[in-house]
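Figure 2 data, in text form.
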Amino acid sequence: MTARHAPRGVIRVSGSEAAVYLQGQISQDVESVAGGESAWSLVLDPTGKLVAWFRLWAVDGGFLIDTEPDVVDALAARLERFKLRTDVSFAVETDGHTLESRLDDDVDPETETAFAWPGFHCAERLTADDITPSIDPAYEEARIRAACPRMGVDIDGETIPGEGGQALIDLSVSFSKGCYTGQELVARIDSRGGNVPRPLRVVESEADVAVGAVVVFDGQDVGVLTSAAGPVGLGRILRKAETGSEVTVDGVAARIIEPTGSR
């Protein structure tokens, strides 16, 4: 059973106005997340660029936010920025949290939650255990082939949400809730069919690829691989290199392929 065990940064959100405040700051509809449930969301800066992609959990006394450890402090600082005279607090917990993920459609509702990305379905569990990080190569290859990004790796503070792909938007954004910071760019790109400058692309090579490898199309550098597993890599690539395009990766012949699970 292929799996990944990874440290996770957690923010504990509390206060009588926590739900109201989050509703105006994050892309997900907070009111749709019932006690014990969770949902993925984005926090953006005022220009619409990504601060963090994370999961929001409804728990007794408020909420938990879990995300990659390297971005948890920036996320907490961003959430603190606009809370003037609001009864909400954010406590960062960077140690002792692990996200266990396994490739499986079957989820134990008592202990696990589903991560349903097209072509990449996982059963996940957030624990307080101190587990040595590990990753099965088959898990990483499946993630990359499905164009499922990692926050701080494939998407970062220079990313606009649409570059993460339609699956990211479908999973993380509510278009029926009220306004939130950075909403305008998300809505505008969605209305234009998700056309973005550097969409995430899956690249398959004739040889194994590495993170940092340069992708060349029609004689021009069009992007860099940010994730790699065997012969496949993932990166934000100039949109002129469309699916099916012949490219090179560090001089080796390769091709941009359709992500697993694409509609």
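Caption note: The domain at 3-189 is CATH 3.30.1360.120 (Gyrase A; domain 2).
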